[in-house]
Amino acid sequence: MLKYTAKRLLQSLVTLFIIATIVFSLMRLMPIEGYFQNFDKLDQNQIQAALKSMGLLDPLPVQLKNFYIQILHGDFGKSLIFRPNVPCLEIIGDKAPVSILMGLASIAIALVLGLPLGIAMARGKSKFWDKFGTAFIVFITAVPAAVYYLLIQLYCTDWFGVPILFSTDDPSSWILPTVSLALPNIAYYAMWLRRYMVDELNKDYIKLARAKGVSSKNIMKNHVFRNAFVPMVQYLPTSILYTVAGSIYIESLYSVPGMGGLLVNVIQRQDNNMVQALVLIYSAVGIVGLLLGDLLMRAMDPRISFTKEGGAR
Amino acid sequence: MEPNIILSVKDLEVKFSLRGKTLNAIRGVSLDLFEGESLAIVGESGSGKSVFVKTFMGLLDVNGTITGGSILYNGQDLAKFKTEKEWLTVRGREIAMVLQDPMTSLNPLKTIGYQICEAIELHQNLHGPAAKETAIQILEDVGISDPERRMKQYPHEFSGGMRQRVVIAIAVACRPKILICDEPTTALDVTIQAQILSLLKQLKDKYHLTTVYITHDLGVVAGVADRVAVMYAGDIVEIGTCEEVFYSPRHPYTWALLSSLPQLGTKGEELFSIPGTPPNLFAEIRGDAFAPRNPYALKIDYVKRPPYFTVSPTHKARTWLLDPRAPKVDPPEVIGKLRKGGFGSV
Predict the structure, then answer these.
(1) Residue A127 placed within a domain
(2) How many Cα atoms occupy the beta-carbon half-sphere of B25 within 13 Å?
């Protein structure tokens, strides 16, 4: 286990390093306007002087070296345009908690509703819950999220008398965005769990378990659910992390001060340092998600420890 | 001494509904299983052997139902069982099963120990360390060395033959009266087959089991069975002791089946195969199901289903050829040869 973890961790670090390099290099190709608040008002000399002071005229390898050192110190630079001279991490730190909190709440809802729905669907194949669940899943996957998010906001605010816009102090204003955010995850968790459980149910070892006299309830609990959950844990962390990272739709719909819209915002305003910091953070989140998924799966599936060199899935 | 009947099947009928059509999988089968015996059920694929024994444990697929007849066991009619609760009193505890493919019949994510203990805890009322100890004992019984260490291992750490031993250990751990082995050696290579069969014979004596083998391998039958039932198209066409069925078979289907055994030491002869295909079980079968493929078929075979004719107290066959009015037909030559050649293996 230790060896596998170390190996996977190292792989992730290498990936992260490569991504950092690529992001940095790409950012150097961006127009230099992104480094100035008042580009139009500056003359050529001022611009060159400013670029020089930021170290942007150094040879690329030197810049790259400085960049690595910076990140290793946890310094992602300062915002240039979005909120000038405020460290990028501070801006993100201001916005992240709301997104994270809302994301966690919605993940909790999704797990609490999605997993039982999946189990109910697998148990009573083509009975009520299966049909209900299928209809729900088809709706969620087929209809663009923006459409049902909007419908929920339009109608539910009226029906339940909850505020249309988000405010941190009013708990009732959390309900709609959180639930909306949970909907796709409920559908996905239910869909995958049902699928994997049905797969497991048709396997021979279930027949043997039945033949030795294990009750359906215990077969479901000890054999089917447990085994079906293994392929799911691999992608749960990714799904959780991405949900926690904030949703552009939901956050702009309810004007939640989270980090969902932040990336789009800073790209539009050409705040190069902010873009760089955010892209790096999102990539890191993705990589951490994959890493956690693999490690969790490894912990749950004894067969993986015996895969040979490079055999990690 | 007349042996006790442990399980008695009368006129059992099983139907499956498939895409709106009805398939008659078992067509009125009767069978008495004697305590302590070893019965082999042979027949080609699709003859209903597996379905037949699955009815003893309520393990039919959801689209299959028992539509007639009875299965008497311990004073209860298993054919009338509906709820899972009723079946749980029989499954494992009274009748246990060894499945065909050991590679897939163990849960890959649970230790061997867990899977054996699960059976022990359900049926022997032992828990915790006591269950573990029993499991280790049973693993030793099925010939797995270093059982204490092996208990903590997962199925993928076992070879095919070893896994089948584990599957057998699980079945035995239930302490059943009847052990059904559904093609227990089909998925194993020949050397392992012999080991598994002799293991099953040993366990039968040690745990006083009544065993039912399902197989299409006549070599297996000759090795393990006291009695043989030959199934064709959802019906037992001939049943008798091993000797009787192999050395003086009476049903043309049994003749055909035995003729298709390859003989060691004969060269250059083409292998015998039964012409035609098994009947369509979706349609109603008139007369003898084997008649269209039977070179000895009589006119009546196409009209009326033959009853069982008794050849000896232990030997019955369902063919009109045994009717006193039927013309005298000699079995094919090869059947006589079998007597001399023996059935060591196939």
Answers:
(1) yes
(2) 23
Residues 6 or more apart in contact with residue A8 via CB below 8 angstroms:
A291, A294, A295, A312
- With a cut of 60, say whether residue B1 has pLDDT above it: no
B106 by Cβ neighbours in 10 Å (0-12 / 13-18 / 19+) ranks as: buried
CA dist., res. B164 & res. B153, Å (int): 15
Pairs of residues, one from chain A and one from chain B, whose beta carbons lie less than 8 Å apart = 78
Q: Is the pLDDT of residue A35 over 80?
A: no
Smallest Cβ–Cβ distance between A227 and the set B97, B107, B122 belongs to B107
Mean per-residue pLDDT, B235-240: 94
Range of the domain at A153: 89-266
Q: Which residues of A touch B93 (CB under 8 A)?
A: 213
Count of domains in chain A? Answer: 1
Domain annotation covers residue A242:
yes
Tokens 């024994």 sit at which residue? B53
Rounded to whole angstroms, the Cα distance separating B143 from B100 reads 19
Cβ–Cβ of A214/B118 closer than 8 Å?
yes
| Residue pLDDT, tens place only, A253-271 | 888 888 877 888 888 888 8
Between strands B210-215 and B309-312, the pairing is: unpaired
What is each CA distance from A191 to A125, A138, B227, in whole angstroms? 13, 10, 50
A58 touches chain B (CB under 8 A): no
Residue B71 sits at the chain A interface (C-beta within 8 Å) = no
Q: Is B165 on the interface with A (CB under 8 A)?
A: no
Where does chain A have alpha helices with state H? Answer: 2-28, 44-53, 60-72, 88-123, 128-142, 145-151, 157-160, 172-201, 204-211, 216-218, 226-244, 248-253, 262-268, 272-300
Contact (Cβ atoms closer than 8 angstroms) between residue A137 and residue A190: yes
pLDDT on residue B265 = 63
First to last CA, chain A: 15
A17 domain residue, yes or no: no
SS3 B29: strand
HSE value, Cβ hemisphere, 13 Å, CA-based, for A269: 17
Q: What is the pLDDT averaged over residues A175-188?
A: 92
Contact B99 A301 (CB under 8 A): no
Which amino acid is located at B22 in the chain? T
- State pLDDT tens for residues B73-132: 989 999 999 888 999 999 999 999 998 888 899 999 999 999 999 999 999 988 889 999
What residues are paired with B12 via a beta bridge? B29
The mean pLDDT of B51-57, rounded to a whole number, is 93
Do A205 and B174 make contact, defined as CB atoms within 8 angstroms?
Answer: no
Six token digits for residue A287: 């990589």
Judging contacts by C-beta atoms under 8 Å, the chain A residues touching residue B121 are none
With beta carbons under 8 A apart, name residues in chain A contacting B101: 204
CATH number, domain at A224?
1.10.3720.10
Q: What is the ipTM for the molecules in this complex?
A: 0.85
| Cβ neighbours for B229, distance < 8 A, ≥ 6 positions apart | B31, B39, B40, B41, B42, B236, B238, B239
Nearest to A302 among B59, B88, B154 (CB): B154
Q: Are B47 and B58 in contact (CB under 8 A)?
A: no
Label residues A178-208 b or e (16+ Cβ within 10 Å = b). bbbbbbbbbbbbbbbbbbbbbebbebbbbbb
Please provide the DSSP assignment of A96-151 as one string: HHHHHHHHHHHHHHHHHHHHHHHHHHHHTTTSHHHHHHHHHHHHHHHS-HHHHHHH
**Distance to chain A for B244, nearest Cα, Å:** 33
Is A29 part of any domain?
no
